[in-house]
Structure prediction request, 292 residues.
Amino acid sequence: MKYAFFPGCSLESTAWDFSQSTKEVFKALDVELEEIEDWVCCGSTPAHATDATLSIALPAINLHKAVAMGRPLVASCASCYSRFRTANDVLTKSDEARQAVSAVTGQPYGGQAEVRHILDVIVNEVGLKQIRAKVKQPLKGLKVACYYGCLLTRPPKVVAFDNPENPMAMDDLLRALGAETVDWPYKTECCGASQAIPNPEVVERLSHRILAMAGEAEADCLAVACQMCQMNLDLGQSAATKKHGKLPETPVLYVTQLLGLALGLSPEEMGLRALIVNPKSILDKLDMDKAS
Prediction:
């Protein structure tokens, strides 16, 4: 399997551990990722809040490049994934949008590129049977709250590759790795997404609710598939606690990091040193060496 990989801006900076764990895991699963050459920002939140044409033109530039590579585009970032799928949806339905975007980019593109999220590829293309066969360090005894956030499932007709109300892809994957996943009602609740800077009080309140519910479910950690969710729940955990009440410290790991550990990759290879809430409790439970 070969994919055109779009890292996106965050994975080139603050979420480098998501990028690193994604690349190492895909290599271990014999899936080839070729980074799109000269990719540009997809616009994420600012573009579609500012200019409708720009919000489609930016992802279209990258989608056009993926078509030229002859590969489906795969993204780790849930926001980038959402923007690419939305752009395809708009461009396949509107002649006016196609003409406007082509005028901006100078490249005709009609929404034909296949767009996948890494979780979709891992579960539905690589497959749980093949993954089980590669497990070297089962996650036995680990209780995980799978947190999908809102962008992987909404709007369902555009982005969802799973049940929009009760997605199970991450749960199924982690169970295949030997972990126990908890049944909890907040798996698709919003954490505040990109509001961490303009409206931190919103993020603190929403994140506290999510972390408190994971605590009530007695989860050892949260698994996420979005760097904005990871940042809000990990980096913002201390602020949420100070503002809204004490919480048990809960490590927040990317699903790729947990998958990599199960495949026998080291904490260093998975970039666990980037986590704010120390994952030592997780590593101790799995009898692994400490992250450095």
User: Anything to note?
Assistant: The chain has a mean pLDDT of 95.
